[in-house]
Design goal:
5-stranded antiparallel β-sheet; 11 helices; 21% strand
């Protein structure tokens, strides 16, 4: 029987079950023979030994943020080897879903500080219109809205309306995501707002020990960045639903979302195992 949960219950379950899964994954390392040997082989470290494994879990610590406050590390599991190497692992128990949720202002400021770059003013304007932080959003919707009921309710422009308002903004927003896909992978999967690079993840591990799926797959984030850069031009585009309410990305998609039902909402990035897995298929072709 499928358990039905409302959205709030769903997020709570996802967080708690995620931490439970992390602890179960850590327990796998108690097998110092076959499991550890195969794990090291998958990471290209067959000649090494695992010294210790640490997990975040429910007591995950806050780390210093580039914005001057604190934030949660993207790393769920740390594996330390005898050669001095450390693998910071982000564990995904689901094959798709939210990978990063962040307020619009924090995204812009955090991205600029994390990568010591300035997002162009026209791109910032497009971000604020697409995610509804601009003061004139509803005025534009009233005049040019292509999905008026939705845009009014969410206080944001969809792609077709953005294009009708200013084609340059429509194009530069998409181009910015294409041209910065490597940094976005870092931001969403590895760093978030964490300032200390020793807290950044360098491995993504899809593994669900709760029996909800059977995938067990490791990805080096550096490999994914190279692959996604190679396909960003064709795999970054406005979605075809709701007159362009999402931007499809090589690793998933990004959309408007407001978990607390407040305006403006947040920028919500989603991951897709199916899209990440294509990087290995390409490598083996």
């Amino acid at each position: 029987m499928t358990i039905q949960r409302n959205r709030a219950e769903g997020w709570k379950y996802a967080k708690l079950s995620g931490h439970e899964n992390e602890n179960l994954v850590k327990e796998l390392f108690s097998d110092k023979g076959t499991f550890q040997a195969k794990f090291l082989e998958r990471l290209g470290k067959s000649n090494c030994k695992i010294l210790k494994v640490e997990v975040g879990g429910l007591n995950e610590k806050n780390v210093v943020s580039v914005l001057g406050n604190t934030t949660k590390s993207k790393t769920d599991l740390k594996v330390f080897l005898n050669d001095g190497a450390a693998f910071n692992i982000s564990i995904k128990k689901s094959l798709g879903g939210q990978v990063y949720l962040i307020p619009i202002h924090n995204f812009i400021l955090g991205y600029e500080k994390q990568f010591d770059e300035v997002i162009p003013e026209d791109v910032k304007r497009a971000i604020e219109l697409y995610w509804g932080k601009a003061n004139d959003t509803l005025n534009i919707v009233n005049k040019l809205g292509t999905n008026k009921a939705y845009e009014t309710r969410k206080n944001r422009l969809v792609a077709d309306t953005l294009k009708a308002y200013d084609k340059h903004l429509y194009e530069c927003l998409l181009d910015w995501f294409k041209n910065n896909i490597s940094n976005l992978v870092t931001f969403c999967f590895a760093s978030g707002l964490a300032k200390d690079k020793t807290e950044w993840s360098n491995v993504i591990w899809y593994d669900n020990e709760l029996g909800e799926n059977s995938v067990d797959d490791l990805f080096l984030i550096s490999d994914l960045q190279k692959y996604f850069e190679s396909i960003a031009e064709t795999e970054t585009y406005y979605g075809n639903r709701g007159h362009g309410s999402t931007i499809q990305l090589p690793f998933g998609f990004v959309q408007w979302h407001s978990p607390k039902k407040i305006i403006p909402g947040c920028i919500q990035f989603h991951h897709s195992y199916e899209k990440l897995a294509k990087s290995k298929k390409k490598k083996n072709d």
